[in-house]
Write a structure and sequence with these properties.
Layout (H helix, E strand, L loop, with lengths): L3 H5 L10 H18 L6 H10 L3 H11 L1 H39 L5 E3 H25 L7 H17 L5 H12 L4 H31 L3 E3 L7 H17 L7 H6 L10 H37 L7 H4 L40 E6 L18 E5 L3 H13 L6 E7 L6 H13 L4 E6 L1 H6 L4 H15 L3 E4 L8 H10 L7
Parallel strand pairs: 1-2, 3-4, 3-5, 5-6, 6-7
Helix pairs in contact: 2-4, 2-5, 2-8, 3-4, 4-5, 5-6, 5-7, 5-8, 5-9, 6-12, 7-9, 9-12, 10-12, 15-17
């Protein structure tokens, strides 16, 4: 038997052994490694992932579960699940109270109840929203989910971030938001929340109406200016048809005509009460409960089909590490560059890039909190940092794993460092791994100037190293300074980059 928590926590589909939970941990670890710009070294976790076998995604998930960071994210996720569980219960409780309040407003101190107003107050808005949900779901099968459910998800996300005291909450929440967008999972979770909240409202309205009708005597009347009496009689007949089919007594034509405002005498109190309660049940509570149940089944189905996007650079970098058979990548530089001819003249400015721009950081001094750099008007995909041999292997793995060729590969280098054979080897290997142009973006010139270095000489050294390694273009820029001429040129060249990705 499932526990109450397992049953009620449909909003985030996370139990102790669910595959969704495991993938959430893996996604959180990917986001953390993307932020750091490198793969977290854990040889034990890598080895256990390889030993576990399965496809690449299964090995990625196993590695995430075995790392110390993954275990920390899992503990954070458990705490967030508890917070969200109670938030969902609170929302359902508030919806129930709202239904009770609506019934109390309808059956106030006045002993005469306008049946039209009562139906409009208790059923009108939610029935209109139900029709809009059906229309939107049919018109846009891949969108929707219900405005109420989406608002509840957004509120749970914001409150979860505030209420959780764990430092990793932001990363786990971002991972959950990313996964909820895949395979319709988030759409059906929002749908289940929408219908669940409206079902709670209808239940509260139904309970409040039963209580009010049980302890007080009410007279039911109706009135209309636009509709004819025959139209209102027909409308009441349509509303009461489901109840009448089940043998539930509802007002007939004679009772309806006799209850019009202005006529003397109370007629059919029990029949009008039955019509009101039957309408709340058949047009409110039952359809919302049924749709909530269907949405939960679709949530479970979408959760079973959920897969990680292993083409993302953060996962692609792991392909070498998690290969079932250990492979040595050998020496990145097959032969040293000892004797060189005269340097080739620098190449001219290239044409603007129209494909995806991939970003690599090479031995930068900027901290992980400043990676990847953000330049207004430019959208690039960071493959990571390439500060040591292991990270360079991971970056090259991510580059090889891409199914579509990029428009350009950008390597951000630090002017504060002198180019050495290691940098040249990396550029040469990079040129061998892709047919896309490779550009060297020379950043961190301010650090060089602060140390009294000769900027022009250092730029020339990088240009010569890039020429020897086959780099297509060398550009000096300050990525943290939007007004720098090189940064403006980069924006112009990459202004359309990413549109095809």
């Amino acid at each position: 038997m499932p526990t109450l928590r397992q049953t009620a926590d449909f909003a985030f589909v996370t139990t102790a052994i669910t595959p969704v939970r495991q993938r959430l941990v893996a996604e959180a670890l990917r986001l953390e490694e993307d932020r750091l710009g490198r793969i977290l070294d854990d040889p034990v976790a890598d080895a256990r992932a390889r030993e576990a076998g399965g496809d690449f995604e299964q090995r990625v998930v196993r590695r995430a579960a075995e790392t110390a960071s993954g275990k920390r994210f899992a503990a954070t996720l458990d705490g967030l699940v508890q917070i969200r569980f109670w938030l969902v219960l609170l929302a359902l409780g508030l919806a129930l109270l709202a239904g009770l309040g609506a019934a109390a407003a309808v059956f106030g101190q006045d002993a005469t109840v306008n049946i039209g107003w009562a139906l409009a107050a208790l059923l009108g808005l939610q029935l209109l929203m139900l029709l809009l949900w059906v229309g939107f779901t049919l018109y846009r099968p891949r969108g929707g989910g219900g405005a109420l459910g989406r608002a509840a998800l957004a509120a749970a996300h914001a409150l979860g971030r505030r209420l959780s005291r764990r430092p990793d909450s932001a990363v786990v929440l971002s991972a959950s938001v990313g996964l909820l967008r895949q395979g319709g999972l988030g759409r059906w979770i929002a749908s289940a929340l929408t219908h669940g909240l409206w079902a709670a409202f209808c239940l509260g309205a139904l309970v409040g109406s039963v209580f009010a009708l049980s302890v007080r005597q009410y007279e039911f009347v109706w009135g209309t200016t636009l509709l004819t009496e025959e139209s209102f009689v027909a409308m009441v007949g349509m509303l009461g048809a489901p109840a009448q089919w089940l043998g539930w007594p509802v007002p007939d034509e004679q009772v309806v005509r006799a209850s019009r405002i202005g006529l003397e005498g109370a007629v059919g109190r029990e029949l009008w009460s039955g019509l009101l309660l039957a309408s709340l049940l058949f047009y409110g509570l039952l359809p919302r409960t049924l749709l909530a149940g269907i949405s939960l089944l679709l949530v479970r189905r979408a959760a079973g089909k959920l897969r990680l996007d292993t083409s993302l650079p953060g996962y692609a970098r792991l392909s070498e590490r998690l290969s079932p058979r250990a492979r040595s990548i050998g020496v990145l530089d097959p032969r040293p560059v000892e004797q060189q001819g005269p340097d080739r003249p620098p190449r001219g400015r290239p044409a603007p890039v129209t494909g995806v721009a991939l970003l690599i950081g090479l031995e930068l001094e900027r901290g992980t909190g400043d990676w990847p750099p953000r330049v207004a008007g430019v959208d690039w995909i960071p493959l990571g940092r390439a500060d040591d041999r292991s990270q360079r292997r991971d970056v090259l793995s991510a580059l090889r794993a891409r199914s579509e060729p990029p428009g350009v590969v950008l390597v951000v280098c630090s002017l504060a460092r002198t180019p050495d054979r290691g940098a040249e080897r990396f550029f040469s290997t990079l040129r061998e791994q892709t047919h896309a142009p490779v550009w060297a973006v020379l950043d961190e010139g301010r650090q060089l100037a602060a140390r009294g270095g000769a900027r022009a000489l250092r730029v020339r050294q990088w240009q010569q190293a890039g020429t020897r390694a086959g780099v297509d273009y060398v550009l000096e820029a300050e990525l943290d300074d939007a007004g720098h001429p090189g940064t403006r040129e980069l924006v112009e060249l990459l202004g359309h980059a990413g549109e095809s990705g």
